[in-house]
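[stage:ingest] chain + small molecule (NAP)
[stage:ingest] validated
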Amino acid sequence: MKTGTTEGSPALDLGRMGIGTNVWGRGGKPLSGVLELFDAAMAAGIRLIDSAEIYQGGGSERSIGSALAERRAGIATAAQPVILSKFFPWPWRLSRSSLESALKGSLGRLGLARLDLYLLHFPLPPIPLETWVTALGDAVEARLARSVGVSNCDSTQVRKAHEVLAKRGIALACDEVEYSLLNRRSELNGTISACRELGVAVIAYRPLGSGILPAASPTIPGLRKLMAPKTDAKGLQDLRSLLLSIGESRGGKTAAQVALNWTMTKGTIPIPGARTIAHLAENVGALDWKLDAGEIEALERAADRATGTR
Ligand SMILES: NC(=O)c1ccc[n+]([C@@H]2O[C@H](COP(=O)([O-])OP(=O)(O)OC[C@H]3O[C@@H](n4cnc5c(N)ncnc54)[C@H](OP(=O)(O)O)[C@@H]3O)[C@@H](O)[C@H]2O)c1
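[stage:predict] done
[stage:export] tokens:
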């Protein structure tokens, strides 16, 4: 999927699926086996690699940087990965210049001179969204970022960000939002349709519902429980059974593949978090086929029962 074009630059091709890296590199150190995972992602045609300065204290960016240092020169220009990172608006970051310093920190960990895609992680107070979006525009003009976007913005915020950048001839490349069968807020509140109207790509984070959707048992361990959408146990069990039965009727697709395929039927780009080649390979099996309208409707009915949405 190609994003809107900034004047004078080619559109950025994000592909149909990316990979999330928020658990790469615990303790700030590169993830062990990251080169093999990176190679497997490139071989599978996954180009978008989602990171952020706050993931594992920079360990996620360092993991990606270590793989890029080994491999980037050997990858053809047309197949280069798209590296995405994010600026976190901590309350002590009070001026536009803090975004440029943070971006330079990310570039250092990634070993890059210019980032493909740089996002505002959250539109948090006290600094207005417009200030950070203006700073993102500055980063494009300073050639520190090829393109820029936002994350966790609703339709009003996306429209504002788009307008601020458009005045300078800069495209808003994306809004990265939580989106899965267990969290359809961005669809139901009009954010996704506003993005479509403006030519802004929607990147779907936690597309597997923090791993709940493909879990063999609905018992969710540790931290995942805190972040996970609230679900009714029986409703979740029914949803999982439906994911599995649709998968079976589709020639042996797994629950994860059906759940990811659903996000793509809505025109979003899922970035499932994966640390293992097995998970990555399974997730790639969500590409190149499409759920039909009846399956989509049945999944949404079951999901809404599981989350008590409607
Ligand atoms: N912009 C934002 O504010 C924001 C917020 C949160 C996340 N994100 C991004 O979104 C990415 C994805 O979110 P997420 O990782 O929190 O949630 P997720 O992708 O919904 O779920 C990831 C979990 O699912 C498991 N998993 C992955 N593939 C699987 C498969 N095929 N079968 C069974 N389990 C599978 C992983 O297991 P393992 O633990 O064993 O690997 C992991 O625990 C993050 O990595 C991050 O890059 C962005």
